[in-house]
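USER: My hope is that you can spare some time for a protein that puzzles me. I am handing you a single protein, as its sequence and its fold in token form. Walk me, if you will, through where the backbone shape changes along the chain. The protein I mean follows directly.
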Amino acid sequence: MTRLGRTNLDVFKLGLGGIPLIKLTPAEAREVIRASLDGGINFADTAEGYGDSEGKLSHALQGDRGKFIIASKSPCRDAAGMENAINQSLTRLRTDYIDLYQVHTLKTAEQLDKVFAPGGAMEALKKARTAGKIRYIGVTGHRPSMLVQAIKTGEFDTVMPPINVVDREAEEELMQLAKEMDIGIIAMKPVCGGTLDDPALGIRFCLNSPADSVLVGMKSVAEVEANLKTFREFRPLSHLEEDELLENASQLGNTFCRR
């Protein structure tokens, strides 16, 4: 287990990404989630924008809510919208609290200003935290330079950037600053949106980073088992494997989903 920054939540180094659950039937999603739980994974990230992911997660965790740390998120920038989003997530997740609720896909300084302005989303997030509806507040985005500005406010407990062999910007300042501020780092897109020829190499690349948790989207029990095997047998990339990964990455360009 790894301490997720100042949240003091103990999370498994591998986390379950919620997007692939959209394409699964409820029964298939339950198999993936239960296999993750059985394998030691105790952290799942979802969002109001991930289709029925929240509902499938709640269905699979019936009776075991306390064994899982759940994160969700919303792109709402105003208080009214964020308050409604949190309440809707609570309903879909069939829970009375969400461990981590995040400002989703922060892109610009104007959006950050709106979040913190009077009547902005941060008001609703703090209100929900005081009411016990959420425990911690995070921020996500694909632009690490913008996330740096966000965490400098001191109001976020976690930050979620893309961390992979193509998206290297988070290495420049964001991760070091987050560690200095004791902000939990959650890595997304470790396998470049599923485009790497060998996903295990991408996961190992991320596991060797300062990230506290590496989110991996998994759509079958076989994928869960393979990724858990990669984690349990983790070793740093050899020079040959690193060259292979970089060669694969050089052919990807910006074609995978990251913006």
Summary: The CA atoms of residues 48 and 192 lie 22 Å apart. The longest strand covers residues 134-140.
